[in-house]
Amino acid sequence: MINKSHDSIVKERMVRKADPSILGGIWNGKEYQHICKDLALNFIDGEAPLMADFKGSLSRDKIKYHHGAAHLNSSQVMCISFFKKFFEYKKYELLLDVLRNAGIKIEDGAKIEAAAVEYEPNHCERTNFDFYILLTSGKHISFECKFTEPEFGGISKTEDTYKYVDKWDKTYSALLKDSFYFKDKDCNCKNKECLHDGVLSKSCEKKKTCFIYEFHKYYQINRNILYATDKDDYVIFLTPRENKALDKERKNIDTLAESYGTDHIKNLYWENLIETTLEVVKGDADLYEYYKKFEYKYF
Predict the structure, then answer these.
(1) Which end of the chain has fewer beta carbons closer than 10 Å to its terminal beta carbon, N or C?
(2) Cβ of 193: how many Cβ atoms within 10 Å?
(3) Buried b (16+ CB within 10 A) or exposed e, 43-65
(4) Distance (Å, whole) CA 46 – CA 39
């Protein structure tokens, strides 16, 4: 018996549910049934947003759609599809109610001042938040969204021997000063040998106590946490519970949150968020129908 990956299982499930007329897109010259013929067809309402800002002007950029955005299991399109609907009309702006019901503590009276997908707060550092909210209180909520990916991103092998060393020295060391969680970390290593060539070397004798090593061990996760500058900022990792390949890294996120004594670094499951959303929007027939379609497509 073949042990199928979560990615394969989800693709097969989504193909069975999808309208066959939209499928059969091309990837590297070959037709695939889990790829839509056009990007817009991968959106529940057939509309692919152009601009990254859903409210306010955080980004002012066009959305840079991934090369695989037409794939049914694109986590980028999944994320955009979920959040964009709340900003189509003023009466739809129920997202904070949804998040409160999902266990995110947002003060009464706070409103969304700005919201954007694919938000990049520092063009030199290049961390890209899948979805980002700025509240009227000045606090922010950031989201890293996964679907069928088997892991969060890490550093990768590079021919530029000192790529990650230089980035640490020129960028991260400065950003740490404003980070609520990381500003007091011990980062006095001079050689940073563990980062050479983009391969996280385990030979360093200080790897168990050195934050530079720990930061790059869970690179994408820690880059998201790095931008929390206040104890009330939220860093949300939104993933499907059914994707067991992410269990180890989700456990690390929970361990980090526990070590800092916070519930503002948080794992949130798509399944729970959808259930909460349907409960909150059930009074509006159009919204409820949209999120039932979302649930059907993805789960």
Answers:
(1) N
(2) 13
(3) bbeeebbeebbbbeebbeeebeb
(4) 9
The two tokens of residue 119 are: 């938000």
How many DSSP H helices and E strands does the chain contain? 10, 8
What separation, in Å, do the N-terminal and C-terminal C-alpha atoms of the chain show? 24
* DSSP result, 121-169: S-TTT---EEEEEEETTS-EEEEEE-SS-SS-------SSTTHHHHHII
Nearest to 43 by CA among 91, 100, 98, 85: 85
Tens digit of pLDDT for each residue in 77-126? Answer: 999 999 999 999 999 999 999 999 999 999 989 999 999 999 999 888 88
Residue listed under structure tokens 């949130």: 268
What's the pLDDT tens digit per position in 256-281? 999 999 999 999 999 999 999 999 99
The model carries a pTM of: 0.95
